[in-house]
Inverse folding.
């Protein structure tokens, strides 16, 4: 008996890719909001492991001349059940991009990677030697490099699930409470590292320190005004 609920389990961070949703420049600094997606390779491996390679298949159809539909079919009790979704072809590698995006969306219909929809658009970390590259967009921003955000624990295997409206509030409140209690930059960095689950690079810490100082000044001013 196939347990289809296993399709919806979270993926390891290595199976998640990030794309820039929007970006711009403000006060001379570049910013970017990014969204998370499951890779097509991970989708195929999940289907193989849960239903078996022989019990699923996919097919593609052109739609309205500019879009691609993907149907993922799973054999359930000797009958093929198909769920469809689609995507527009991209400007770069139009055919490949359209097929890839359509399959990701079709997989979501089966619950694969659907939990990522609970993630808000998240800010990327802009770094000179970042892992990812974003080309320039005329009139909006210059080309830049960036690092992806760290996924919260609930979005990783064996993580504790949370409601979408709670997932970020806990970390944000804990960080702000910690900022209000400590007076050292080292202490503030430790709090954030503990909450995000990783050690930051020197360049990231430098950028974050500037933001921490702004937050701490705001908190001190608020206390004075109160």
């Amino acid at each position: 008996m196939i347990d289809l609920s296993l399709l919806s389990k979270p993926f390891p961070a290595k199976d998640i890719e990030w794309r820039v949703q929007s970006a711009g420049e403000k006060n001379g600094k570049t910013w970017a909001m990014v969204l998370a997606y499951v890779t097509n390779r991970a989708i195929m491996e999940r289907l193989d492991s849960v239903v078996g390679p022989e019990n699923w298949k996919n097919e593609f159809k052109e739609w309205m001349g500019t879009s691609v539909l993907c149907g993922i079919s799973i054999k359930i009790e000797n009958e093929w059940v198909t769920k469809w979704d689609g995507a527009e072809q991209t400007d770069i590698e139009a055919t490949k991009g359209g097929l890839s995006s359509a399959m990701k969306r079709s997989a979501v219909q089966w619950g694969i990677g659907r939990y990522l929809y609970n993630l808000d658009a998240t800010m990327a970390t802009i770094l000179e030697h970042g892992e990812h590259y974003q080309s320039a967009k005329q009139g909006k921003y210059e080309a830049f490099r960036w690092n992806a955000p760290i996924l919260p624990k609930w979005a990783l295997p064996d993580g504790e699930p949370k409601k979408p409206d709670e997932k970020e509030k806990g970390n944000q409140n804990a960080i702000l409470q910690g900022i209000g209690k400590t007076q050292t930059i080292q202490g503030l960095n430790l709090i954030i590292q503990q909450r995000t689950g990783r050690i930051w690079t020197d360049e990231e810490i430098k950028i974050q320190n500037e933001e921490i100082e702004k937050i701490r000044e705001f908190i001190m001013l608020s206390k004075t005004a109160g």
